[in-house]
Amino acid sequence: MKRADFLKQLAFLSAGSALLPKLKFPKDSPFTELRNGVGIFTMQGGTIGWLTTDDAIVAIDSQYPDPAEKFVSGISSYGGGPEKVLFNTHHHGDHTGGNPVFAENGYRIIGHANVPDLQRIAAEGQENQPTVPDTTFEEDFDLSVGNETIHAKYYGPGHTKGDSVIWFEHANIAHMGDLVFNRLYPYIDRGGGAMIANWIPLLEQVADEADSDTLFIFGHGNPEFGVTGSSEDLLHLRDFFSHLMEYTRKGITAGKSKDEITNIQSFEEFPDFVSPSDFLSLSANVDVAYRELTEAE
Ligand SMILES: [Zn+2]
Q: What are the C-alpha distances in Å from 165 to residues 113, 152, 231, 251?
């Protein structure tokens, strides 16, 4: 699939799309308040998380230029001070495509150290150079605004090799970026350094660091389940990945061909996962698992 088509597919998964009538947050405004000044913005592409305080406006991910314009103008209704910060959870275009709009509006941009190069590689052959984070970190990054402490943390490769989880410690909310596709067959970007074998313990570690009150924000979600949830949703995805690896390993051990192994539509153990396109399907997931188990990196 061409990149542009893929981006359209991801746009389709946006919780704000008119194509998805059964939303968890059905209303006219793309802004939804959660708690303690933290909210989400859903229009097109990966869910934006946000925080406004007397001192600052903080955004997590930037979708595309058009929704980014709507975000930066609309967020003022929710307050916010002069300091403006954007975190990128990872490099994909449906999470960083609005970066130029944020930069023009005075936001500094923070992301994991692998994000700029992954953005540049993904943009090769395209007319415009990507707007990359101006501040990067290897392990973690802390930012205090108002009474909130924001903690961005890298857990190793998962959906790509540059994903971070952004914790709002006081509000007890964490933005997972695309480390969680909630009840959707996930995009596993092997070319971008994804690794299922590390994604499994990663989800477990984040769930361990959370408590029963922690609210999670997800990059994308099955409209029936939405783009927010609990650590139970992280562990459900962990179980899906464990099952995916087990299924694929068994097929390889039994001497089946790759075509035979990837010829599968669903696992009966995970009936709640949906496939919005061939690109985001169980067959595509098995294909990546097969390559992870059989090819050297
Ligand atoms: Zn992504």
A: 14, 6, 13, 33
**Residue-wise pLDDT tens digits, 236-289:** 999 999 999 999 999 999 999 999 999 999 999 999 999 987 789 999 999 999
Question: Could you tell me which residues are beta bridge partners of residue 39?
Answer: 33, 50
For the chain, domains (ranges, CATH) are: 3-241 (3.60.15.10)
User: 90 CA distance to ligand 1 centroid (A)?
Assistant: 7
Residue 77 CB contacts under 8 Å (≥ 6 apart), including other chains: 31
pTM of the model: 0.91
152 sits in which H/E element: strand 148-154
CA of 5 to the centre of ligand 1 (A): 14
Task: Give me ligand 1 centre to Cα 89, in Å.
Answer: 9
* CA of residue 178 to ligand 1 center, whole Å: 5
**Residue among 295, 119, 59, 92 nearest 181 (CA):** 92
